[in-house]
Amino acid sequence: MGVENKFNQRVKYFGIIIIILFVTLIGRSFYLQIILGNKYQKLANGNRIDIRDIQAPRGKIKTKDGRVLVSNRLAYTVSIIPEKAQEELTLTLKKLGEILKVKPTKLRDKIEKKGNHKSVVLKRDISQEELVIIEESKSELPGVIIDKLPVRDYVYGHFASHMLGYVGEISASQLKEYEQFGYETNDIVGKTGLELEYERYLQGKDGRKQIEVNNLGQKIRVLGVEQPISGDDLVLNIDFKLQKIVEKNLKNELKKLRQKAKDKNSEESQGLPTGGAVVALNPNNGKVLALASAPDYNLSLFSGGISIKKWEELNTNSLRPLFNRAIKSAPPSGSIFKLVTGTAAIEELGITANSQFYDPGYYKVGGIRFNNWLTGGQGNLDFIDAIAFSNNTVFYKLGHRLYKTDKVLLQKYARNYGLGQKTGIDLPNEASGLVPDPTWREKIFSKRINQIWFPGYTINLSIGQGNLKTTPVQLVNLVSAVANGGTIYSPQIVDKVINNQGKVVKNFKSQILNKLNIEKKTFEILQEGMVGVTNYGTAAYMFKKLPFKVAGKTGTAQTGGNRNNHAWFAGYAPADNPQVAIVVFLEHGNSSSNTLPIAKRILESYLISKAKPAKNSQ
């Protein structure tokens, strides 16, 4: 009995143990599947396949000889998959904001624009320090991804900044315009310059990669890759050496003039030049050889996204470094406009090279006295000398005669030369300028007395003053037309577009805007007068010793206030075989004489270097 009872008792205890284990297993299973089921379902779903975009590199920008001006480099970038962060998103953004020195609200704005189901780029081109801190804190940053993505590499920093332009995150207005082409929020697009003008060529096609990720959104392994296709390259007409010469001389002269003004204790708001521009092109086809605006800025600031501090510094700078004076500044042209008045006078009034004039130092109309720049006048002189010495009195007289013939005759010639309208240069936001006329006054002014176009308005216009507005690129077109005998070209910076396989996608041929219906003799007279400017006239002291002849025209445009006048020089060389046309503009540069050293050094360096035989030549 004793043995049997002991056996039964053991069976009983064993059964109890079995029941307890079974109940425990059932309870545990209930707890895992019912109580924690939702959590583990999410974790299980977290280990899944994810599709991520691979940003395509933008196309390069280079010169004709293959020198790369803008390229791409790989940089560490911080992104986040919001759905991976889940309820910890707020905390994650707070931690990231502290690391990246960005307000969490700014990071959240990026996410809200993009949506919660895609990876959102939060900051491009992070520092090595930021990278290390994020990597060390990965377990505390669910959904955060570190990738290497292409960012813009502006090889020469400040070089041609206004022409090349910069990139940035797509704006709402740009997204509306580009959405049809597959663009999305947070995409990088061109904002200014060629980067904007040729956005549809430069932007590549993004690739994709299929990866397995864990519940934190962190990569386990790559399952497949669809490679991105880089954007097309731009090949420019720009001459690299000439562009460097232009920028160096423009900056140096501005610096020198500003220092000279300070040394004279001039009022800073009145006595200092505020900036300038130079445009050089081939007058025979309109190809842009150089284009510069000063002051400029460092394009590299925009490579990974410019900081708020740097952006504010650029935008609040009184010298406006972001403003492209080559295509946007539109002051009066001063005496360069005398080439227009001269054209109209020869064609409509029968003026010849030998036409004689007398200058007492002024021209008087209706009790109003219009003074020559030279007090006391120049006495007797012919038309060629009137151009060479930039005589105001002669052109006042001619302007008045043109007014008597037809109130808008002079304006007609100005517009034929392309003034008052965009040149069509391949850069965004070009200014149109203005050629004022009776219709313009009627639109601008409400009082009848102010709407009347009096003779004095045309007389002022005849020497490039009054309400005339011209841009440097318009004036380089004007002198190019005089040089080539009457053809107005649309200035062209980009020569061609090439895809990533080296195939030409687009060739840009010279576009003719207008062929002036003007006699050959007219241009010959103007050309002779412009050679006189640099041989014995207003610019002779600077140019007459050069080994080639320069045809030029100086201009000083009054500002109408207490500020310094604007300074101009426009010309071409060699005079007997034009290869380059140039305009130099100094905003509040005081006198045209201040533009001459810039023009001389540029023409001298460019033409003498071109005349030198290439190395290894026979």
From TrEMBL:
Q: Which GO terms describe its biological process?
A: cell wall organization; peptidoglycan biosynthetic process; proteolysis; regulation of cell shape
Name the coiled-coil region(s): 240-267
- Domain Penicillin-binding protein dimerisation: from-to ranges: 54-222
Taxonomic lineage of the native organism: Bacteria, Bacillati, Bacillota, Clostridia, Halanaerobiales
As for membrane topology, the entry says: Single-pass membrane protein
User: What's the protein name?
Assistant: Penicillin-binding protein 2
The family line of this record is: Belongs to the transpeptidase family.
Question: Localized where?
Answer: Cell membrane; Membrane
Q: Where are the transmembrane segments?
A: 12-31
Lineage, top-rank taxon, reads: Bacteria
Q: Name one GO molecular function term.
A: serine-type D-Ala-D-Ala carboxypeptidase activity
Primary localization class, coarse: membrane
Ranges for domain Penicillin-binding protein transpeptidase: 276-604
Q: Which UniProt keywords apply?
A: Cell inner membrane, Cell membrane, Cell shape, Cell wall biogenesis/degradation, Coiled coil, Hydrolase, Membrane, Peptidoglycan synthesis, Protease, Transmembrane, Transmembrane helix
> Which cellular components does GO assign to this protein?
plasma membrane
